[in-house]
Amino acid sequence: MAEPRPTIVFFAGAFAAPSCFDTIAKQLQQSGYPTAYASVTSLAPSDPAAVSVATDAEFARKNTLLPLIDDQGKDVVVFTHSYGGVAGGAAAAGLSKASRSSRGEAGGVIGLIYLVGNIVAEGESLFQAIGEAYPPFIKEGNPSRGLAVINPVIDTLYADADPALAPTLEAAMTPHALAAFETPSPPPAWAESNYDGHRAYIRTLDDQCNPLFIQDAWMEKSGVQWDTVDLKSSHCPFISRPEDVVARIDDYFVHVMVLVDFYYANLMPADHEFDSRRKPSCWNAWGKISAHTALDALK
User: Fold this and answer.
1) Which of 33, 63, 126, 187 has a Cα-to-Cα distance from 87 of 20 to 30 A?
2) Structural contact between residues 222 and 233, judged by C-beta atoms closer than 8 angstroms
3) Is the pLDDT score of 162 beyond 50?
4) Do residues 118 and 86 make contact, with C-beta atoms less than 8 angstroms apart?
């Protein structure tokens, strides 16, 4: 029987509703991947002072991840964009498939994909991670105390998008609570050793919101290994280059979720000591077996 596709759970960046992923979600569904959207409390809250990274993580965990994993036994890939890396990383903590399997529980998070995702350590705020100074495009106190928006929208987030989309993209800018950026992060899933070899980062090379040097600094500071792939795009390639983002997600599933684990389970010499840190990179050249070999063997 063919290996079932995992459910892709999307965590949007700040200032955006999860519907920003509609185009790539539809394409993934057509390729056999179920999808789900996680919502957070800090997007356009009625009381900006009452929200935090912790409330975002708990809300998404309770309302999106646990119903899929606990109630349905689903395997999940957590896909985060920008601030979604903070909320999504915290929401997925302790839910890895490996840790759940060890307790005899079905389902779990099998991988993390950060699309220019913010990487924040336990106890650290995003504000601290960016040097404790907001960039000029973050307009604090707009439209009211405790909230912010981004301006200019197009130049900062969508510089390579179709100009015809500009009015729609500008209208979609949604106020976000500054508390999401200024409160400490709970323990993040990416720090868990169960994600060694199952932790990926898509770098956006022409990003005006989170420049490339910041992306690289976050990965280095994390102290864990990230498999990386590059997109020559601005901050939101799911708008400007949706097919490329979908292809990277599919590659991740085939080469990491299938090929790497198939190799270690079936082809690794019996006397070879297992070391998850030596798993081949999901986007590096694959020299052991082909995708067709692994997928055929799983049928």
Assistant:
1) 33
2) no
3) yes
4) yes
Decide: 95 and 6 in contact? Cβ < 8 Å.
no
Cis peptide before 18 (omega within 30 of 0): no
Q: Rounded to whole angstroms, how far apart are CA atoms 218 and 58?
A: 23
* Residue 187: both structure tokens together: 């323990």
The answer to whether 196 and 224 are in contact (CB under 8 A) is yes
SS3 228: strand
How many whole angstroms separate alpha carbon 189 and alpha carbon 110?
11
Which residues partner with 112 through β-bridges? 78, 199
Q: What SS3 class is residue 56?
A: helix
Amino acid occupying residue 2:
A
- Which residue's structure tokens are 């055929």? 296
pLDDT at 110: 92
CB-side exposure of 63: number of CA atoms within 13 Å?
Answer: 13
**What percent of the chain shows pLDDT beyond 70?**
84
CA distances from 80 to 114, 267, 286 (A): 5, 32, 26
Written as six digits, the tokens of 56 are: 């975002």
Cα separation, 107 vs 123, in Å, equals 28
Q: Look at residue 259 in the predicted model and tell me its pLDDT.
A: 53
Counting Cβ atoms within 10 Å, is residue 264 exposed (0-12), middle (13-18) or buried (19+)? Answer: middle
Confidence (pLDDT) at 287: 33
- Cα 231 to Cα 136: distance, rounded to the nearest angstrom: 25
- pLDDT at position 254 over 80: no
Q: Which pair of structure tokens corresponds to residue 265?
A: 């389970």
Asked if pLDDT for residue 295 goes beyond 50, the answer is no
159/162 Cα distance (integer angstroms): 9
